[in-house]
Amino acid sequence: MNTISRFFSVAFMQLKDLWKALMLLYAPIAGLFLIVGILSQVIEDASLAFFLRDVVATAKLPFFAGFVSQLAGILWSAAVTICLFSAIIMSRRPVEYTKAKRLFLHGGILTCALLLDDVFLFHEVIAPKYLHISEKFVMLGYLILGAAFVYLNWNQILASEYAILLLAVILFGTSIFLDTLPIKDYHLRYFWEQLELFIEDGTKFAGIATWLMYFAREILIQIETA
Q1: What is the 3-state secondary structure (H, E, C) of 105-141?
Q2: 8 SS3 class
Q3: 3-state SS, residue 29
Q4: CB 116 within 8 A of CB 60
Q5: Are residues 157 and 98 in the same domain?
Q6: Is residue 57 one of the residues assigned to a domain?
Q7: Contact assessment for residue 87 and residue 101, using Cβ atoms and an 8 Å cutoff
Q8: Is 62 strand, coil or helix?
């Protein structure tokens, strides 16, 4: 009985010490659900389930629909987590790790932007259809963001295993190039259309995995050499 009492007593004391951190966690969640609740009442034919339920369940699709796309989102999320958590770790290290901190922080921001774009189809649907922003301008914005990441972290990148990062960029570039090709205008046979889709999405997925590998290996190197 004393063990159980002590267990709950310690838990209560921990909650008292962590209340600010918990507020920072739950306040955005409460805000998110409040916004979703309002949007479900404002947008026509958009019930609350449309915002909260899984897309596959809502659309009554087979469980494997969008399987690779969901895996890609998981890899993007892992890369964002590694980058931002690594930036926090590096910020607690001596001043000589400032460049490493900046690399992970900027990498996390860039990766987060790419994650949100990929998951919510920003450059494909939201920007051109709802914001009336050309898809080309959005892609140009990502190109500038990527160039700024390289420019601001050039020395740190050269000191890292930059061949992995370069390979990720090549894979992304290949996928984007194939995406811009007007395949439908060529009236190709079904096989060639499917092959183009296979290579386009395959190089994109491989690029995301390679991007994740770069930052995962970089933080391991930073920790091992500390």
Answers
A1: HHHHHHHHHHHHHHHHCHHHHHHHHHCCCCHHHHHHH
A2: helix
A3: helix
A4: no
A5: yes
A6: no
A7: yes
A8: coil
Instruction: Dig out the tokens for 11 from the structure.
Output: 């838990």
Write out pLDDT tens, residues 153-196.
999 999 999 999 999 999 999 998 888 777 666 666 666 677 87
Let me know whether 104 and 43 are in one domain.
Answer: no
CA–CA gap between residue 210 and residue 166 (Å, rounded): 9
Count: domains in the chain: 2
Question: Are residue 66 and residue 43 in the same domain, yes or no?
Answer: no
* Cβ contacts of 188 within 8 Å, gap of 6 or more: 196
| Residue 16 placed within a domain | yes
34 vs 152: CA distance, rounded Å = 38
pLDDT of residue 208: 97
Q: What is the C-alpha to C-alpha distance for residues 4 and 22, in angstroms, rounded to an integer?
A: 24
CA distance 80 to 99: 18
Do 47 and 79 fall within a single domain? no
**Residue 89, in any domain of the structure:** yes
Any idea which of 118-122, 183-187, 197-201 has the lowest mean pLDDT?
183-187
Half-sphere exposure of 147 (CA within 13 A, CB side): 6
CB 215 within 8 A of CB 82: yes
* Residue 127: alpha-carbon gap to chain centroid: 18
Say what the pLDDT of residue 183 is: 65
Query: Where in the sequence is the domain holding 125, given as residue range(s)?
Result: 62-224
